[in-house]
Amino acid sequence: MFGHLPAIPPRAIRTGSWLARKALTRAIRSRLSVAVLLAAALSPLPIAADAAKIRRPHLPYPQLDWPLEMTGAQYAPVAWSDVAGWNEDDHLQAFKAFRASCKAISAPRNPPADPKALGVSLRDPCRIAQTAEISGEAGARAFFEAQFLPVRISRLGETEGFVTGYYEPVIDGSRTKTDVYTVPVYRRPSNLFVKGFRADATGLPNKGQVFRKIGRRKLVPYYDRAEIEDGAIAGRGLEICWLKNQTDLLFAQIQGSARVRLEDGSTLRINYDAHNGYPYTPVGRILIDRNIIPKDQMSMQRIREWMEQNPEGANELRRQNRSYVFFREVGLSDKDEAVGAQGVPLTPGRSIAVDKSLHVYGTPFFIEGELPIESEQSKTPFRRLMVAQDTGSAIVGPARADLYFGAGVDAGKVSGRLRHAMRFVMLVPRSLDPVARGQAMPVPVERPSAKIAKLFPQIAPGKPASSTAVAEAAQGVPLPAARPEIAPDRPARRHRHHRSWWRLR
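Given the sequence above, the corresponding C-alpha cells read:
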C-alpha cells in the first residue's frame, strides 16, 4: 500500500510474531524514518502510477529461527507455578507414557524434516528419557521441567480448548456368519486407493479423498456407508469376523478399535486400518438437531439406547454418516492395551488423540478443568499431564483432544459423556524456546502518530486526492512546492531509473 500508514491507537498490539521482538537499532530506525519523510516530502500528490516501480531499501537481516508457528492457534509462555494442578499430578505415569512414545520417535536414524511446529525437536528429550533412571514422582516432574517449557495454547480468539473421550469397546462376535452374527467387519479392500500411497501401505491418512479403480485408469470415489451396508463389497473374502448388529460395528468404527469376544471364549483384537474417504458426520449431532435427544443429555449411551429402541430410524440415521472404517486384525492379548496411530500401546488416563496435521506424536499436554468422571452430574477436577499418541478424523484444532480411558463398559460410560471445555498447556522442548526466538525477531517500523497521519492522509495508488484531504493537509502544514521540470540530458529510461533511486536517498 502506498502513502502514509493510518494511525493506530497507542494500546494496539503490533502484528507479526506473538512474542515481543528486539527492536531495530536506533541507527536503522532513524534512517528508515528519514527515508520515509523524504519520500513523502518529495513526492507530489496524488502519487504517480509508476510509484509501484520504486525500489525499496533492502535491510540485510540475518537468517533467524522463527518462533512457533501453528495455523489457527494462539499461544503464550507461562511459568510452571501458573499451571494449575501441575505440582499435584502423578508425573511418573506421564513419564512412562512419554517414554513409550520415544521408541517410535527415536526409531528413524535420519528422520525427515517435519513441517509441524515442533518438528523433530522431541528427539532430544527422548534421548535423555530413554537413558535416565527415574523411578519416583519427583524425578519425573524434574525431568519435564528441565526438558520442556510450558506454553498455554488455544484456538485463535478463544481461551479454552475442547475435549471428548474414547475407549475400546468389548463386543460379542463370531469368526463365521451365523443366524445371530450377521454383520461383517471388513478389512481394507484391495481396490481402495489413496493418492500418494501404495495400495498395501500402512498408516493411511484418516482424512481426504479415497478412490476405487474402474478399468485400468479411471478412479471414482469409494462406496459410502449405505452402499457398503447394502453389499457393495460383500463376497470378496474381506470379512474378519461377524457381529450381532450394525450399532456394534458403528461404535467400533467411531472408537477406532475393539475387542471381539468370540464364541469359543477367545478374544479377537481389531484396529483402524483405512476409511472410505467421506467426512465423519456425528450421529449425535443429528439427533440434537432433530430435537430427539437434548444437547445436555447427549452421550454414547443415549445414542445406543435410541438406536436399539428405533431400529428403522437407526438404519436411516446411521447412513447419514457416509464415512466407513475398515479394520485390521492385530496380535494383542487381553492384557494389552489398544495401539494408537503412533504405533505404541495407549495408556488409559494418559494417552490422547490430537490433530496430527498440527501436532507431533509424543508431545506432552497438560489438560486442566472439570469433567464428569465419577457421575454424569459430577464436576471432578481433572489436572493431568497427557501424551499425544493417537488421532481421529473428528479431532481438529490446536487445543482439541480425545482422552483415552481404556477398554470395557465402565470406560465407555466415562468417555461417552465427555464434551467439555478445558484449558491446554503444551510442553515445548527447550531447544525451541519461544521467548528466546521471539526476542531475536526484528519489529516492524512504527506507524505514524495520529497527528502525522492527519497531516498526510493516506491516498490509494492511482487515485487523485480529494479536495477535502488536500485542504486539510494544507491547513496543517504547507505542502512542498512542485518539483520544476528539467529537461533530461540522458536517455529517458536511464533518467527514470536515476530519479527513482534519488527519491529514496
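Residues 1-58, 494-505 have pLDDT under 50 and may be disordered. Try to locate this feature in the C-alpha cell string yourself.
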